[in-house]
Design a protein that fits this description.
The protein is mainly alpha-helical. The protein has helices at residues 8-38, 44-61, 63-72, 79-112, 123-140, 142-146, 148-152, 168-201, 212-238, 246-266, 274-280, 288-293. It has one domain (8-293): Rhodopsin 7-helix transmembrane proteins (Rhopdopsin 7-helix transmembrane proteins, Up-down Bundle). The radius of gyration is 21 Å and the shape is globular. InterPro entries: GPCR_Rhodpsn, GPCR_Rhodpsn_7TM.
Length: 294
């Protein structure tokens, strides 16, 4: 007979994940609709934003069963489904870190090297980069896919619990992604410093930037997302401290509610119609020459 253990801690987790879903789902769905309907995907920045919104929505899709499990203390589906939902969560959290870093690099090129980067900052290159990211994060989860056969015939009523142990391959993946997180955090810091220096010390080169405050808010938010949402959970996994990972998973999922702010700050014309958005452009896009580079 299946038994369930409902704890106060589990109810808190269910409430947190529930709030993330209730807030994040409409924000990201509306943002994706606006990006697709009112902004041209000819902009590399818009392409990256669309992929980030899709990644956030896929994370949110994985939350209802987490909420049910933490609220009831039991897992009604198979272990295979448990592993699948866990992998869906991990894949899209990992892809978010790449897309946020790409957005920082794109803003760096647009502000610091607007002319020299024109041949790099194309929608075609943005789509290629997004495809590489999705393929890479899928390959990183191959060790998890290999575990599906092991879990297929087990009969447990729990899910999302702490890991008892990890294989050498899984440990390698954890360490690899920890190194990537640190590297991407360093890239975001470097981008922030270079853009700040350019805005402060080269006013003539940045005179056409419509809203410099919004530019810096984008970089500040990216750093907050990395240091608060992504870094803690990967440090915990890298140290092989698999207990109390759920609170850090909650922090990681919070990024789904914060990412829509990036879309708003990135486009002065975010809420405008497509023809108006083309004329208004991004926060870096005042004037026809600047529009072409951004």
């Amino acid at each position: 007979m299946n038994t369930s253990v409902i704890t106060t801690e589990g109810r808190v987790y269910a409430g947190v994940f529930g709030c993330i879903m209730v807030i994040g789902l409409p924000l990201n769905a509306v943002a994706l609709w606006i990006l697709l309907r009112r902004h041209s995907l000819k902009s590399p920045h818009a392409v990256l934003m669309v992929n980030l919104a899709v990644s956030d929505l896929l994370v949110i899709i994985s939350l209802p069963m987490r909420i049910y499990f933490h609220a009831t203390g039991r897992w009604p589906l198979s272990n295979m489904m448990c592993q699948f939902i866990t992998m869906l969560f991990r894949i899209n959290i990992r892809s978010s870190t790449f897309f946020i870093t790409f957005i920082s690099v794109d803003r760096l090129l647009a502000v610091v090297y607007p002319l020299r980067s024109r041949h790099l900052r194309t929608s075609s290159n943005a789509w290629k980069g997004a495809a590489v990211v999705w393929l890479f994060v899928l390959l990183m989860n191959v060790p998890e896919f290999m575990k599906l056969k092991y879990f297929k015939n087990r009969n447990n009523t729990t899910c999302f619990g702490p890991l008892d142990s990890v294989s050498a391959t899984q440990s390698a993946v954890i360490y690899l992604y920890m190194a990537l997180i640190v590297t991407m955090l360093a890239v975001n810091i470097i981008c922030t410093v270079m853009v700040s220096w350019t805005l402060c010390n080269r006013p003539s080169d940045t005179a056409k930037i419509n809203n410099k405050v919004n530019v810096m808010l984008i970089f500040a938010m990216n750093l907050v997302l990395f240091t608060i949402c992504f870094l803690p959970v990967h440090i915990r996994l890298a140290t092989k401290s698999f207990t109390h990972v759920t609170p850090l998973a909650c922090l990681a999922a919070v990024n789904c509610c914060l990412d829509p702010l990036l879309y708003y700050f990135s486009f002065d014309s975010f809420w405008k119609k497509k023809e108006d958005a083309t004329n208004g452009g991004e926060i870096l896009g005042s004037g026809r020459d600047r529009e072409k580079t951004c």
